[in-house]
């Protein structure tokens, strides 16, 4: 969907992947300009693949396994970059290990620029307007469909088997579909929001359709040595991505900011199609990068490189103020 979103904006696209057959299939199906297979997925191969490009969009996950060579090649090529990662550990890697070199080389790196975690980051910037220093920000993602891609399932498997979800907490909020309860998980906002807001505590929740105790039990079970392989194998089954109505299923994101003095403000962001939004967000930012419309350099959070309200409008996200909860 990223390629299609870029093409609708008039961009010429080069497809880069690890499998020659899949790369060429994508080129023909999407009528991309060209395609290159980097079979070893090394920095050198990717550097050659990025020659003559103006910006790089990475959807190559799990990012913990495939992301570092892409970043190394991007910096050697002097390009700006955005990606679709939802992995907190990889976001931390970008900020901690690549920020300095990106600034030196004049590159802008923006990780987690899809449904994970653009609505939460931009929504927090809007909710926090006029509040000053914050005690906390709570972000609740409420997709109406839980159909996910194979790549996302692999990321979920890594999260489950790493033990990150052993003791989740919960938060209940009101969205258009009614009252929903989200379960806490290691979100990107914990890392991105302190880069542009003065905030003490950030928690990200996702509505999974099951209570926190059940999620915690699943996390503890999945992290056992004898179970990890079974979980990862199970995540490989099923369709490559959402099908039919799931592609355009609506979603809502509730974001609430609380000032040190206790004042609270909340906003509700709404859109359609988790993966469609990710494609739109990445394409819009990548095109701005390619056209030199992003002045910032280094590793950046979403709200550091775009105006929150303007970008939501540009990518089909509605934003409205709601009563704090």
Provide keyphrases for this structure.
Rossmann fold; 2 domains; alpha/beta; 13 strands; 325 residues
Question: How is this structure best described in words?
Answer:
By secondary structure, this protein is of the alpha/beta class. It has helices spanning 2-8, 20-30, 43-49, 63-77, 88-97, 99-105, 118-127, 150-162, 189-192, 212-222, 225-235, 274-290, 302-305, 308-314, and strands at 14-17, 34-37, 55-58, 80-83, 108-110, 134-143, 170-175, 178-185, 199-206, 250-259, 264-272, 298-299, 318-322. It has two domains: 2-114 and 276-306, 3-Layer(aba) Sandwich (Rossmann fold), CATH 3.40.50.720; 118-273 and 311-322, Dihydrodipicolinate Reductase, domain 2, CATH 3.30.360.
**Residues in helix, %:** 40-55%
Structural class: alpha/beta
Cα shape: globular
Distance between the termini: 35 Å
Q: Count the helices. How many?
A: 14
CATH architecture heading of the largest domain: 2-Layer Sandwich
Tell me the count of domains: 2
Largest sheet: 7 strands, mixed
Q: What's the topology here?
A:
Layout: H1 2-8, E1 14-17, H2 20-30, E2 34-37, H3 43-49, E3 55-58, H4 63-77, E4 80-83, H5 88-97, H6 99-105, E5 108-110, H7 118-127, E6 134-143, H8 150-162, E7 170-175, E8 178-185, H9 189-192, E9 199-206, H10 212-222, H11 225-235, E10 250-259, E11 264-272, H12 274-290, E12 298-299, H13 302-305, H14 308-314, E13 318-322
Parallel strand pairs: 1-2, 3-4, 4-5, 5-12, 6-9
Antiparallel strand pairs: 6-10, 7-8, 8-9, 10-11, 11-13
Helix pairs in contact: 1-12, 3-4, 8-10, 8-11
